[in-house]
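Quick illustration, no need to memorize.
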Amino acid sequence: MVVAGGHLVPGRGHGHLGTGQVLVRQPHRPEHGPRGRPLRSLGDLPAPGPTRTFHRNLPGGVSGWAGTIPSAGGDVEREPLPPPARRSWWLEEALADDPGEPCPPLAGRVRADVLVVGGGYTGLWSAWFLTELEPSLRVVICEQDIVGGGPSGRNGGFVNSWWNGLAAYARRLGDAQALALCRAGAESVAEIGTWCEANGVDAWYTRAGDLGVSVSPAQDGRWRDTLEAAERLGVGDLFEELPPERVRELCDSPLFRGGVLLRDSATVQPARLARGLRRALLGRGVRIFEGTPVRRFRAGPPAEAETPLGSVVAERAIIAVNAWGIHWRRLRPHLAVRGSYIVLTAPAPERLRGIGWTSGVSIWDLRASLHYLRTTPDGRIAFGAGGLQPDLARRIGPRFAYDPRSVAIVARDFRRMFPSFAAVPLACAWGGPIDISGDHLPFFGSNPAGNVHHGVGYTGNGVAPSHLGGKILARLALGIEDRYTELPLVRREPMRFPPEPLRSPGMLVVNRAIRRKDDEELERGRANPVVSFVARLPRRLGYELGP
């Protein structure tokens, strides 16, 4: 799912800064320019515009959150919505286990060799690899909330490469580049587990595989294109096609049909991983300033960031702000933001045993508006849905943290998938923003001066790719050229989304059509032709998004 910078903080965060000569986006001002134009320079940032943050204290920050879950069958009494987690259950659990030493806000003027803006996975891994490559570097991280407060502490904890998209990437990038990309991502899947063990981080790393399942006839066999590409490219042993009865041995949902098992994947407790990185970096002498939004940024060189109580001057800078990139003027045309929401059950290990879901395998369905689900060591199910849009999504506000309508949809879908859990309460729910790129891959690059570098656009798959992104950004910052900087993610021309005022309402209409198409295929076997036409518009326009 997601990564990097920012969360539920009052006041202004560093998410709104832009990345051009005039970098702060003016409210509602259209962005023009052809798709595929390379990013321009990372120039000076004037003072930021309107506040774009979550509210810290939920539910008080989300008015009207009470509601009910619509019945999956229509013949039972509706249940109340699960209450919002204050941050996310992951982060609450991680902080209870180890609150960590304080990292007060930046005060005064600080000099550094490298400044990292954003304390999520991308920024943290960048700092880790910078200090691996040059241990003497002075590295400073500015995080507007606390480490793990943003998407890095809110995602589903799926640790995947890009193998499930191998066929599409081979068509677009060529066989050699597609294999290089997927293999680099697979290295990160393994290395995260090795890193946790070596650094004493109990992030619940579990390498049990990843199961993609069909939940409607329209989805049956959608994986075969990928399996054929894998066989042709010599990596077919990574996958196993499973008939319905084998799928339901692994997890017995009445909705599950056939599926495909990818062995090369894992899960983590995402906030424990983020907090473990924080602890390890502090041990290396990296200076982390939490509660420190960047209000103004000048690319220089040297780069300079102004914060509410001080400033940082650094020869080099890394911008690792994830979905908050939509508020950086030069990144905004290449990013869209969607919400992803998770409901978490109360512990019910006996129910998990009853449906056979005891191996730790993570699961996702083949809907375009996908569901992703995994278990926890104490017998809970974390059930999420991606691609939800709580509003026009022109800003990142409190409804990305908890949106009653979206949570109701996710809770209903959970009840439909697991009727045997009808008596198990939903303990809490939370959400977070996802940074979407037009071709479903992140992009990394530098300004013309070569001293400011960026990485965004993970499109819901960020836990392992952000580890790879940290390798890339550290190398860009240090001027190192190797196989990581030669990957097709680096120095590429990201696709452009339509400008406002078309972008936000158009995406909202298409997004709801995609979900409706999936629902109609599940409930009726086929979707309304008009709904299908609208849902497929992104593909017709050349984007790697939707059905």
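Residues 1-53, 55-65 have pLDDT under 50 and may be disordered.
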